[in-house]
From TrEMBL:
Keywords carried by this UniProt record: Oxidoreductase
NCBIfam families xref list: PA_CoA_Oxy1
InterPro entries: Aromatic_CoA_ox/epox, Ferritin-like, Ferritin-like_SF, PaaA, PaaA_PaaC
Superkingdom of source: Bacteria
Keyword Oxidoreductase on entry: yes
Enzyme Commission numbers on file: 1.14.13.149
Claim: Protein biosynthesis is one of the keywords in the record: no
Pfam family, one: PaaA_PaaC
Protein name as annotated: 1,2-phenylacetyl-CoA epoxidase subunit A
Organism: Sphingomonas arvum
Taxonomic path: Bacteria, Pseudomonadati, Pseudomonadota, Alphaproteobacteria, Sphingomonadales
Gene3D superfamilies: 1.20.1260.10
GO molecular function terms attached to this record: phenylacetyl-CoA 1,2-epoxidase activity
Amino acid sequence: MEIMYTTELSKPGATVQPIAPQEDPELLAAFEARVAADEFIEPKDWMPEAYRKTLTRQISQHAHSEIVGMLPEGNWITRAPSLRRKAILLAKVQDEAGHGLYLYCAAETLGTSREEMIEALHSGKAKYSTIFNYPTLTWADIAAIGWLVDGAAIMNQVPLQRTSYGPYARAMVRVCKEESFHQRQGYEAMTELANGTPEQKRMAQDAFNRWWWPSLMMFGPPDENSPNTAQSLRWRIKRETNDELRQKFVDITVPQAEFLGLTVPDPELKWNEAKGGYDFGEIDWEEFYAVVRSEGPVARERITARREAWTQNAWVREAAAAHEAKRRSRAAA
Ligand code: FAQ
């Protein structure tokens, strides 16, 4: 298998265009020059309010996705088919918690508190990735999530290692390394199922059928309907568009499916020699928007689980705060 993911960046970002000057023109010009020179913007640096707002939006949605993303896999920790698989899955789910925490910290540096972000998630105001509103019906779904969902996450997050906001970019370096391991373990689990008994192979194909299209939706709406992309590219928050990343994901994943002997559930999938990539069928955008509106198959269960965890585990936060207060008062004495 030659084609796998890399955590290296592949190309420089889009050219910075001038933006409408709604802020102090001198500060704005200096900010844009720094972004254009590929300098990182740091928390105490001046930044346009719209830059702060869109970054807070993206990073907090990303953090929520990592935390809600623990739920579909967490469901299977007690049912993993072997001790080895259980240990791997536990480590993976703990990694997702770590990613959520780095990301909440990065978002906090922009001036929004963790409590405000969590409240926005629990009240249904904040978005998180559509992918986590689908159920995990069999063990093969856990393999498919590692292979496809983490695969899509890496594709999307490798360019974010060079996003223009320093704390976000630095968090992404470690996240990408860990996602790489997640993708590998998912592919390995899928390889075993695809080469197992006829029933295991059927499970693998069934999980692939159900996770393929939602994985393509993770990259967001098509470029022509993506309200945030143009501005985010100009500010080098995003380094590639939704469609560019989706195409790369398809091109890298189809040969992996062929290697496994699985069929991509898309009758229109076809290699296009001229573009050097695959043409693929139309994504069901109505389904995507419905899931974004929290109408996904298990959206309600996900938010209920998060709200309950927050309430039932309040004592952990209180104990940690009390411990920290004691430590500080001892240090001050
Ligand atoms: N789900 O204008 P755009 C993971 C929203 S982490 C829900 O294109 P943008 C690890 C979008 O927010 C997965 N909403 O927006 C893991 C916007 O709404 P708003 C998460 C979506 O920001 C693996 C509206 O649609 N990864 O999987 C989705 O420029 C396994 C218009 O869209 C990240 O968050 C969607 N799929 O581009 C964990 C990566 N797509 O806010 C556990 C960082 C779009 O204006 C297990 N984020 N929307 O109300 C990004 O790269 C970008 O935010 C995009 C969207 C590409 C997701």
